[in-house]
Amino acid sequence: MFDPLCSVPAAPDLAWFDAGEAAYQARLGVPLAYPPLNDHAAQRAWLAGFAGAWAGTDDPRPVLEALKPALRERGTLLAQLLKQHDPACWLH
Fold first, then answer.
1. What are the tens digits of pLDDT across the range 32-85?
2. CA atoms lying within 13 Å on the CB side of residue 65
3. How far apart (Å, rounded) are the C-alpha atoms in residues 90 and 73?
């Protein structure tokens, strides 16, 4: 069961970087693939994985535009990512 207060993914072999990468690649659409609210270290690692996966493709969208649909059902998480991690510092 996913514990939103836990700072590691619920899947034993899944690191937050890997979870972010998987979220971009749409391999995982379950709660354990997304970092908990207020865990900025987990969010940073997840975002790095997401952006890294995005950078390895020919996706013409800026990474922020790729992130929005991935988090469309997780508005609070998206808001925290935007507040805590300046999109100007993300890959363009």
1. 688 999 998 899 899 999 999 999 999 999 888 999 988 988 999 999 988 876
2. 5
3. 22
Q: Please state the domain extents for the chain.
A: 16-89
Could you write out the DSSP letters of every residue in the chain?
---TT-SS-SSTT--HHHHHHHHHTTS--SGGGSPPTT-HHHHHHHHHHHHHHHHTS---S-HHHHHHHHTTT-HHHHHHHHHHS-GGGS--
Q: What is the pTM of this model?
A: 0.76
CB-neighbour burial class of residue 85 (10 A; exposed 0-12, middle 13-18, buried 19+): middle
